[in-house]
C-alpha cells in the first residue's frame, strides 16, 4: 500500500530543515469501508530546537499557552462539543464504541483540564507544542520517535494476540481494536498514547508526527495541525 | 437463456451470492445506523450545552467497549437505541427545567407584588435560569419591627463566595 502524498497548503513552503511533505497514511480496506472519512496524515520532522524535548518550554511557547488560557473561558468550554470539528470527533468516538463523555475527545479533554487547572499548564516542550496545535485546530497530533518506526504509518485492526509496540512484554491488545501501526507492529491504540518504547524521549531528534482525520474534518485542518507542530519544532516560529 | 449465460450461472455458487448480498445489505444498514447515531449525538450535545450545568451529559446506562473498534450491526443498533433513549430522557429533563424556571419566575413576580403574602419564601436565582448565585427572599424591613408592623420586602442575597 503506497501512501499518497499531500503538499502543505502554505504558499511560503516549510521552514528550513523540515521535510517538505505530509504523507497520507494507509488504511486497512475493512476499516476504510466501515469508516469512510477516517484517515491518517503524518510528517517526519528533524528537530532543530536546542535542549530536551521533555524539558522546559521556551518563553515563546509558554506565552502561547497563556494566550490560549485567556481565550478559553467557561462559556466556550461548554459549547466546544457543538463546534464543527470537535463535534465530528465526538460522533466518530460514538461510531467506534467510545462514549465521548467518558473517554473524552482530545480537544474536550484539553479544555476540561484547562478549566480544572485554571490554565493550560506546561508539560514539557513537545507536549506543549502538541497541545497548542490541538487548541488551534481542534485536531489532535501525536509524536513517535521516528527511529523506532518502520515504514509508513496507517490504521488497521489489531490481530489476535497482538501486543502494543515491539516489546514482547507490551500490553496485549486482543483482536479487532483500531490501532495506528507501521509495517511491523501496532504503535498506538487509535486516539491513545504511543506504545512504550516508541514515544519520543528527551534526546529524540527525529519525530514522526501523525494526526487522525475523521469524517467531517477538512484535510486543511489536519495539515494545519501538523504544519504548526513542524514549524514550532524547527524553531522557525521563534 | 443463451447457452453462455446458462454456463455462467451454473458456475456461480448460490450461497456465495447470497452471502455477498447479505453483507452488502448489512453494510448499508450499518451506514444508516451510524448516520442516526451522528444525528442523535449532535442533538444530545446541543441539549446538554444549552442547559449547562443543570443536565449531566453522562449516561449511566451506556455500553462500554474495550477500546476503539468496528461495531457490528447489533452493537450499532443497541448504541442507536440507547442514544435515542438518552435524548428522550434529556428532552424530558429540559422540559422539567423550563417548567421549574417558569414557575419560579411567576412566584418571584407575585412575591414582588405582594410580599406580605409570601413571608420568608425563598427563590434561588439558579431556579430562574439567570445564574448560579444568590437567593430572592421575602424579609421584614428593619428586622423585628418590620415583622410586627407587617413591612415586608423582597431582597436578593448574593450567596456567592
In short:
The complex is a heterodimer of chains A (238) and B (161). With 238 residues, chain A is of the alpha+beta class. Chain A has helices at 29-34, 59-71, 74-79, 84-95, 106-117, 125-137, 219-233; strands at 5-7, 21-24, 26-27, 39-46, 141-145, 154-157, 178-181, 186-189, 206-213.
Classify the helix fraction of chain B into a percent range: 55-70%
- Classified in CATH, the superfamily of chain A is Phenylalanyl-trna Synthetase, Chain B, domain 3
CATH architecture assignment name of chain A: 3-Layer(bba) Sandwich
Taking the sheet with the most strands of chain B, its summary is: 3 strands, antiparallel
Order of helices and strands of chain A: EEEHEHHHHHEEEEEH
Cα-based radius of gyration of chain A, to the nearest Å: 17 Å
Q: What does the average pLDDT of chain A come to? A: 88
What is the third-level CATH name, the topology of chain A? Phenylalanyl-tRNA Synthetase, Chain B, domain 3
Helix/strand class of chain B = mainly alpha
Secondary-structure element pattern of chain B, one letter each: HHHEEHE
Strand arrangement within the widest β-sheet of chain B reads 1-2-3
Output the radius of gyration of chain B: 30 Å
Secondary structure tally: strands of chain A? 9
Oligomer classification: heterodimer
Write out the strand line-up for the largest beta sheet of chain A, numbering strands in chain order: 1-2-4-9-5
- What global shape of chain B is seen? rod-shaped
Proportion in β-strands of chain A: 15-25%
Category by helix and strand content of chain A? alpha+beta
Major beta sheet summary of chain A: 5 strands, antiparallel
Using the coordinates above, name the CATH class of chain A: Alpha Beta
Amino acid at each position: 500500500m503506497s501512501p499518497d502524498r499531500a503538499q502543505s497548503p502554505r504558499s511560503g513552503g516549510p521552514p528550513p530543515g523540515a521535510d517538505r511533505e505530509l504523507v497520507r497514511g494507509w488504511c486497512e480496506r475493512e476499516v476504510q469501508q466501515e469508516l469512510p472519512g477516517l484517515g491518517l496524515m503524518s510528517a517526519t520532522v528533524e528537530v532543530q530546537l536546542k535542549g530536551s524535548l521533555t524539558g522546559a518550554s521556551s518563553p515563546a511557547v509558554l506565552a502561547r499557552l497563556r494566550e490560549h488560557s485567556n481565550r478559553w473561558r467557561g462559556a466556550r468550554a461548554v459549547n466546544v462539543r457543538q463546534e464543527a470539528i470537535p463535534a465530528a470527533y465526538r460522533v466518530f468516538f460514538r461510531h467506534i464504541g467510545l462514549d465521548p463523555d467518558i473517554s473524552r475527545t482530545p480537544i474536550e479533554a484539553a479544555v476540561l483540564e484547562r478549566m480544572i487547572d485554571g490554565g493550560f499548564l506546561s508539560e514539557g516542550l513537545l507536549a506543549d507544542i502538541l497541545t497548542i496545535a490541538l487548541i488551534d485546530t481542534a485536531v489532535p497530533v501525536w509524536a513517535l520517535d521516528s527511529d523506532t518506526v518502520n515504514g509508513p504509518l496507517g490504521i488497521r485492526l489489531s490481530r489476535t494476540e497482538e501486543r502494543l509496540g515491539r516489546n514482547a512484554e507490551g500490553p496485549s491488545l486482543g483482536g479487532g481494536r483500531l490501532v495506528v501501526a507501521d509495517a511491523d507492529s501496532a504503535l498506538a491504540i487509535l486516539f491513545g498514547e504511543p506504545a512504550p518504547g516508541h514515544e519520543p524521549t528527551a534526546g529524540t531528534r527525529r519525530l514522526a508526527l501523525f494526526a487522525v482525520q475523521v469524517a467531517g474534518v477538512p484535510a486543511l485542518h489536519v495539515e494545519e495541525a501538523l504544519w504548526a507542530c513542524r514549524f514550532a519544532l524547527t524553531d522557525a516560529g521563534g | 437463456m443463451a447457452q453462455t449465460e446458462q454456463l455462467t450461472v451454473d458456475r456461480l455458487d448460490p450461497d456465495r451470492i447470497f452471502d455477498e448480498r447479505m453483507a452488502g445489505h448489512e453494510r448499508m444498514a450499518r451506514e444508516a445506523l451510524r448516520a442516526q447515531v451522528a444525528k442523535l449525538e449532535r442533538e444530545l450535545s446541543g441539549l446538554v450545552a444549552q442547559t449547562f450545568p443543570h443536565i449531566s451529559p453522562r449516561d449511566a446506562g451506556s455500553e462500554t467497549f474495550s477500546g476503539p473498534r468496528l461495531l457490528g450491526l447489533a452493537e450499532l443498533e443497541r448504541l442507536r437505541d440507547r442514544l435515542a433513549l438518552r435524548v428522550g430522557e434529556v428532552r424530558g429533563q429540559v422540559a422539567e427545567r423550563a417548567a421549574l424556571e417558569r414557575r419560579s419566575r411567576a412566584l418571584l413576580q407575585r412575591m414582588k407584588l405582594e410580599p406580605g403574602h409570601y413571608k420568608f419564601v425563598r427563590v434561588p436565582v439558579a431556579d430562574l435560569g439567570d445564574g448560579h448565585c444568590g437567593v430572592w427572599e421575602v424579609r421584614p424591613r428593619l428586622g423585628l419591627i418590620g415583622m410586627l408592623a407587617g413591612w415586608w420586602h423582597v431582597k436578593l442575597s448574593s450567596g456567592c463566595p
